[in-house]
Task: structure prediction
Amino acid sequence: MPVVFILVPISSLIALGFAYYFFKQMMGHDEGTDTMKKIASHVRKGAAAYLRQQYKVVIIVFAVITVIFVILAYGLEVQNKWVPFAFLTGGAFSGLAGFFGMKAATFASARVTNACRTSLNAGLKLAFRSGAVMGLVVVGLVLLDISAWFTVLNIFIPAAEEGLKLLTITATMLTFGMGASTQALFARVGGGIYTKAADVGADLVGKIEAGIPEDDPRNPATIADNVGDNVGDVAGMGADLFESYAGSILATALLGAAAFSGAGLVTQYSAVLAPMLIAAVGTLLSIVGIFMVRAKEGASQKELLKSMGLGVNTSAALILVLSWVVLYMLQLPNYWGIWGSIVVGLLAGIIIGQSTEYYTASAYSPTRMIAASSSTGPATVIISGIGIGLISTAIPLGIIALAIALAYAFSSGFSFDVTSLNMGLYGIGIASVGMLSTLGITLATDAYGPIADNAGGNAEMSHLGEEVRKRTDALDTLGNTTAATGKGFAIGSAALTALALLAAYIEEVKIMFVQFLDRPNELINGVPAYQAEFIDFIHHYDIHLMNPLVIVGVFVGVLSVFLFSGLTMNAVGRAAQQMVAEVRRQFKEMPGIMEGTTEPDYARCVEISTRGAQKEMMLPSFIALLIPVIIGLIFGVAGVTGLLVGTISSGFAMAIFMANAGGAWDNAKKYIEEGHHGGKGSDNHKAAIVGDTVGDPFKDTSGPSLNILIKLMVMASVVTVGVAVSYSLF
Amino acid sequence: MPVVFILVPISSLIALGFAYYFFKQMMGHDEGTDTMKKIASHVRKGAAAYLRQQYKVVIIVFAVITVIFVILAYGLEVQNKWVPFAFLTGGAFSGLAGFFGMKAATFASARVTNACRTSLNAGLKLAFRSGAVMGLVVVGLVLLDISAWFTVLNIFIPAAEEGLKLLTITATMLTFGMGASTQALFARVGGGIYTKAADVGADLVGKIEAGIPEDDPRNPATIADNVGDNVGDVAGMGADLFESYAGSILATALLGAAAFSGAGLVTQYSAVLAPMLIAAVGTLLSIVGIFMVRAKEGASQKELLKSMGLGVNTSAALILVLSWVVLYMLQLPNYWGIWGSIVVGLLAGIIIGQSTEYYTASAYSPTRMIAASSSTGPATVIISGIGIGLISTAIPLGIIALAIALAYAFSSGFSFDVTSLNMGLYGIGIASVGMLSTLGITLATDAYGPIADNAGGNAEMSHLGEEVRKRTDALDTLGNTTAATGKGFAIGSAALTALALLAAYIEEVKIMFVQFLDRPNELINGVPAYQAEFIDFIHHYDIHLMNPLVIVGVFVGVLSVFLFSGLTMNAVGRAAQQMVAEVRRQFKEMPGIMEGTTEPDYARCVEISTRGAQKEMMLPSFIALLIPVIIGLIFGVAGVTGLLVGTISSGFAMAIFMANAGGAWDNAKKYIEEGHHGGKGSDNHKAAIVGDTVGDPFKDTSGPSLNILIKLMVMASVVTVGVAVSYSLF
Result:
């Protein structure tokens, strides 16, 4: 194993070290007045209650899946023996990252509010660095897990057939992503249902029935609502990107092992290490970027955004240069081309983020058009929002399509022949790594949003002075912008990662296929068997588009996306009803609440909502987990491949549609609240509120959950590939 | 050419003869009172104005496309020489069908109202037989065009290479579908925008600004609104199914010629004639079914539905038997299997219709759930409608997926190997023919709906007696049910036809490929070259799922669907605004209108709305036409194949989602109006109206337009296949 690999565990430890340092630094700050402390403590307790309940369910699910994997691996012998263990560590590490990230966020909010009592810069720095805890814990733990497994497998997997050794190692490591995916399912889907159920439930009983304002501490569901921001936007987003980050690195490592299987061990190692090293360097650059984010006192909104952009963009620019250096040092053949693929991935991420901002920010015409349509009532608000949301998918889909073609073309030397297929697929993988390389800092900007949001809420509820609230408001508005682009980035990276995983899936099938043929190192017409097999492979599995099994797969893939979206939409409605019932019960049984003499049972609301969310997410989750297995059993590898292509393409489009429509409705409402089209309280405002409410499950439940669906279905196919190959009906 | 072919022109002439007979019979009835005549005459003039304006645009578009085709065929020589002519006849015949169908519908409505003054049975019979004019004109003209071209091409195409002769004939005839598709684009997309622009425009100014009731003759847009029903639901639906009917027969003929290219000329002729003969027999059976539809006086809603079902189901049952006889007489190998595919197609159509009814009728829980959600306001109505609409795609997508697999499996003898691929694809084609075989009567039930609707409107506006309005109401309610299942049928058949067309597209590419190799009749390993080539073919074009060009195509296909849907949604909004401006102008410039002394300029509204619709449909239409060509030029056959798979799968899902969500909202509103959840005028009712308005462009514009998109994109790929093969960048 090349010595340079040591960089991976080192940056992992550095990242975790800085995460600890930022956490400690944040904990050293004062939480402020007693009221501020009390409110923060409730949210913290609520978040803990959420995690407790979620982990109860997660442990059961993990236990069941582990048993199945043990049977598959040791009983039926259609799965690698390491899978159950890799699965468990992936799940455990992702769970840890969520735990630490949410801890940091919930400890930070009151401290950020308090820091704003001193200066804006103090508040921004504290909020951002608390967000950075999440960012660095995620990348640190992913790199740590990769380091550990790569080392262990290098020792335990026999070196006899070197070409196959790295293939086996990387194929095994990929299944570690399944654990991360399963954990992300609960965090993102459950969290998404939770946050909107609490939000809608709190509004329906509190605002409409009891007539108390939003965020009033007498509403038992208020804390659940605030917890929801952390649950959905911190933990959910973190688990989502944990999965993408791990998935992209691991898939690319496998694709690298495959592409260079005939190029000698040194080159093959270089190809496998490239994604890991780029991620490691990107992590160090993220830390540099994080230290660059700071604001002058009295900074304008624009300046705040610029200061954050400076950190993010510096990291991105530096990784552009240093990734070239990494590839050059690794002496990979066609390193210029591979570097081109990385550039493509980075640029695609930026453009998708920009397009998200264009379609959802009130500074641009689409959102203003929705706001204007409010003058003819809620129906036209909905129609124009859906129209614009659908149209807004064109740029991201077009860009991803172009990115696929270019990333492939650069790495394959502009050859679309099957013989250069492996090189091209490696290019797609490395593009996704490029897009995610500086995740440490991009995730910090994402996690910053809900921290600033909660800080603002705390200031509001604690009745702090005008000056402080102005500062927290400035931080909060900034958070809304970063949240929108963060969502676009999360979806775009999920799509590209899923495609890399899909290519990796085919590699897994090929490994089985080659193992059946038992001639991995033979040369056929001067090409290594592993490459030459591909033509046989295609015939054997017939993954061409005229195979009806493939077409059936594509249809079922699209079906999965639509069904999953519909189920999560309805889940929010049902879970909200349970919350409504609980709040009504508390108001009725504890009359002291409304008088302000009895504290409501916040934790019970949190638990009810959590349990409701966990229950409601079961059906959509089982669909995501079972469909690939069922299709594999009936329609085999051809069916599964079609399934995944259908899911990824339509799931990506649906996710963008929902996120952007939801974001645009939200900001159209805010635009009207700023005084346009009649302002707050007008009929136009009421019409816009309808749009905003419809947008809630769009942008915070169904949309983000689709990120998980598309990755999880590929991962589920990867880990059960042996079942599809050995037992399929057709 | 086998003598039995004569059945096709004969049934065509019989169908056209009965259409003329029903038309004459209908014209022999009296139109009733002067008021009834006047109203009917306005609608008729409006429809004529619509057609005039539409044909102006259509002629220009056809001229431009014909010039392009002439250049492609005679200049660049990358297209069959017959294409420009086939294109023009397809367009002309589809246009004629629309013209006659709409004429019959607009002449019928007042006469149906008048017949209801005598008896319910008289009204039902007249309305249904007037609808049958459309049904029989469509099938008659399709069969006539097919008869003429098949005869002409049999004479003119040299018989030297028999195996190739039928391939060339059927491949040429397929391009006749391009004319039908282009005509359908204008009828369905333009008509869809028109009808909802007029509807929304009329409501916004009339009901809200001027405070006059719906359907008030003082509203200048009222007639446009009524014309819209004919434009969208009669002409649009007719052109849509004209295209599906022609496309499925022609694609299957080509697939048959391909599948049996090595089986001798007699068998090959049998395979080509099978879809035509089944359609011919189905047409005769449709006429039998039409004569079976009649109702007793005082018949209940259920009995009315039963009487219509009796006609439709008898035709379907008989075609099940007689299609077996046709296949047996043709002595096709594996005729039992091929017959199995027909059964699959017929059953799939029925199940999709049933599932549409389940998700959109207020007798079932989904629509009732939406109605119940109105108690928490419009936002929850929208959320639950979207949730249910998304979920409702599962059954149709699952059924079509299963139908693909089974239709393929039956015809291929349960072999999924490439060597039986052509037989399997023939099975998919013949399944779509089976689904559409009795179109004569199913389209009659569809066209019946708007006729009954307009008859009811006429009765309302003419202030006829209670008894008469009760009868027209009974007919109208029946029309709503048939409209819902008709929509499901139109979408399902569009998807299956598009898949058959996709398979035919691959055949077109193969024909080019084989022609390049110049050895069509040689035997390779005992298999005819045409079959054996397929493996070479797949390699040459690499239409496997790991080819990035295919993946790019799939993404762009999904993009097309989302973009097209968004554009058509927004088009309705903009076109409605133009209508609003015109109505305001008339109210202002002609004060006599409101006093009832001046007749409003109905025709001008109709023209404005028509012109607006034609203008608004340009952008989405160009997208549909140009994307396949652009993708073909850049990414070649692999890209186009991916594109079509992406478009068909996601377009089908989106169409079902939009049609069902829209239908469910509509009926949830009606359910509340029946007295549930507070009834008419309650807050719940207002919330449900928002859902209904959002549903209008869903179910009547964007949803049905997607039927055209998925077929047109395949047709555009078929006719420009030479461009993609000869000039593509990759």
Notes: DSSP finds 23 helices and two strands in chain A. Strands of chain A lie at 523-524, 527-528. The mean pLDDT of chain A is 88.
